[in-house]
Amino acid sequence: MKSMEAIRAQFPILSRTVNNKPLIYFDNAASTQKPLLVIEALDNYYRQSNSNVHRGVHTLANEATVAYEGVRDQVQNFINASSRSEIIFTRGTTESLNLLAYSFGELLNEGDNIIVSMMEHHSNIVPWQLLAKRKKIEIKVADIHENGELNMEHLISLMDEKTKLVSVAHVSNVLGTINPVKEIIIEAHKRDIPVCLDGAQAIAHVPVDVQALDCDFYVFSGHKMYAPMGIGILYGKEKWLDKMPPYQGGGEMIKNVSFDGTTFNELPYKFEAGTPNVGDALGLGKAIEFMQQFSFTEIMAHEVAMTKKATDILKDTGDITFYGTAEKKVGVVSFLMNNIHPYDAGTFLDKMGIAIRTGTHCAEPLMKHFGIMGTMRASFSIYNTEEELDAFAVAIQTIKSIFE
Amino acid sequence: MKIQEKADAVAEEFAVFEDWLDKYNHIIELGKDLPSYDEKLKAPQYLISGCQSQVWIHASFENGLVNFEGDSDALITKGIAAILIRVMSGSTPDEILDNDMSFIDGIGLREHLSPTRSNGLNGMIKQMKLYAMAFKAKEQAK
Predict the structure, then answer these.
(1) Judgement on whether residues A308 and A282 belong to the same structural domain of the protein
(2) What is the CATH number of the domain that holds A379?
(3) Are the Cβ atoms of A341 and B53 closer than 8 angstroms?
(4) Cys staple from A331: which of A54, A303, B21, B49, with CB 3.0 to 4.6 Å?
(5) Cα distance between residue B10 and residue A358, in whole Å
(6) Do residue B24 and residue A342 have CB atoms under 8 angstroms apart?
(7) Do A109 and A247 belong together in one domain?
(8) Least CA distance to B29: which residue of chain A?
(9) Domains (ranges, CATH) in chain B?
(10) Residue-wise pLDDT tens digits, A288-313
C-alpha cells in the first residue's frame, strides 16, 4: 500500500484546520472527502468539455458523451455487472431506492409484502412506506441481535408467498455490521423473492461483485466513495429493469414522442430522464480510479486496525457503551459516553478539530430498538491515521474530565 | 431591565473568557443554575422539535410579563436555554416579539444559530416568540 503521507497528500481538505486544530475527519460514513483527481475532473469538465450529452453532433457533445458513458463502463467493471445497461445513474442511494420503490413498486399488488430490517437507514424505509400506502402492501421488519447482527432466522421466517422483495443494508450505517447478504439472497431466491442491497456504506469498504452475490438490485452513492455529491447508482438485473415502468418522464428516456403515445428508450436510458449529471459522473469515474489504487484487502485491513484501536481507546476510557459489536464489521464505531449527552461530546470534539457524527444517523427505528436518543459515531476511511486516533484519545479524556 | 441590557450583561460576562473551554464551562454552569424544571412539563407540547438533544420550554404570563422556564438533557443546550431564559424572561410580549436577537452574536453563540439539524437555539427562539405572540393575542382579546 502507498505510504499514508502519499495518500493524505491526495486530499487537499485534510490539510485545513478546524477551530485552530488540524482537521481530524472521522465522519466518513456520512461522506468521504474528495481526492484531488476527483476535484480536478470537475474543474476540467466545466472548463473543457461541458455540453449536453447524447444529442449533439459537435465535438464537445461527443467528448462529454464518450466520457460519461465511459464512467458507466467503469461502474459496470467496478461492481462486476454483466451488462452496462444494468447501470443506471441516479442522484444517490436515496434516489435509487425511491426509483425502485416507485417503479418496481408498480409490479406489486394489494396484500403483497416487502421485508426490510430493523437496522435500515430511513432511505430504505420511507420510500417503501410511501409505496405501502399507495399500493396497500405490508412492510415486514426483520429483527436484530443485541450485538447488531441480523437475526437471520427471523428474517427468513418473514418470507412468504406474498413477499415481493427483501431490501436490506449490505453494511449498517450505525452499527457497521456487514450483513450475510449472500445467505439472504440464497434464501430469498429459493422462494423466488428478489433482493435489493443498500450498498451506501459498503461500496467504499468491502468488495462488491453483483454477479457473485446474485443480488437483483444494488444501490449506492458516489459521495461515500470519494466521488462528488449528487451522483449515485442503481444496479438492477436486466430482467427486472425491463419489466419495470419508467420512473420519471422527460427527455432522454424516450424513443418517440407523439400525442397519441410515447415509446420509451432502451435500458439504461429508460430510467434516466432529463439532462444527466455529467460532471459528477466524471468525478465518480475518477473516484473509482482512485479506489483502484488499493486492494480491498488493504482497505479492510487498515479500517479494521483503526476500528480496533478506536475501540481499545474507548474501552480504556471506561464508562462507554458500544452499539454494534458484530464479528464482521467495517470501520464504524458507534458508542455513548455514559452520562454525557452525544451532542455535548460532539460539540467539544469539534472544538478540538475532530469531526464525528452524533444523533440518530437517520435510523430512528434502530435507536428506538436500543432505547436511546442517539449515539456518537466515528467512522474511518483510507486516509485516517493512528496519530489521529491518539489525538482522539486525548480529546475523549478531556471531555470525560470536563463532565465529571 | 430591558432585553438588550440583560443581553449586554451576559455578553460582558462572556467577554472575559478567551479559551473556548472556559466559555463552554460557563455555559454549562449557567445551565446547572437553572431552577429545576417540573417533570410534568416535559410533555411533547413543550418539546422543541428538530434538535439532537431534547429541550423543553414552558412559559407563563403574569402582570403583563412573560416568564420562561426550560430544561434539556444536553448540558450545552441547557446552558443556551438558560441564557435565553435569563435574557427574555420578565419582558412584555412586545419586547420579545420586537427583539431581533442580535445579542446572540454578542455572546459569541452565533455558531449555534446555523441551520443544521443538530441544535435547538433557533427552535427555542421561535418557540419563545410564539409564546409571546399567544400571550399578546390573549391580552388583546380581553
Answers:
(1) no
(2) 3.90.1150.10
(3) yes
(4) A303
(5) 29
(6) no
(7) yes
(8) A403
(9) 3-141 (3.90.1010.10)
(10) 999 999 999 999 999 999 999 999 99
Report the gap between the CA of B101 and the closest CA in chain A (Å): 22
Which of B20, B24, B52 is facing A343, going by the closest CB pair?
A: B52
Residues A230 and A282 both lie in one domain: yes
Both A59 and A202 in a single domain? yes
pLDDT in tens, A60-86: 999 999 999 999 999 999 999 999 999
Domain that includes residue A268, residue range: 39-291
Nearest CA among A56, A51, A180 for reference residue A119? A180
Subunit contact A351:B20, Cβ cutoff 8 A: yes
Report ipTM for this prediction.
0.89
pLDDT in tens, A115-157: 999 999 999 999 999 999 999 999 999 999 999 999 999 999 9
Based on the residue annotation, tell me whether A362 is a catalytic residue of this protein.
yes
Do A247 and A115 share a structural domain? yes
From A291, A309, A326, the end of a domain falls on: A291
Give the Cα separation of A84 and A334 in Å (integer). 37
Number of domains chain A contains: 2
Same domain, A300 and A283: no
CA distances to A102, A123, B24 from A161, rounded to whole Å, are: 21, 25, 58
Type of residue numbered A4: M
Residue count of chain A: 404
B130 touches chain A (CB under 8 A): no
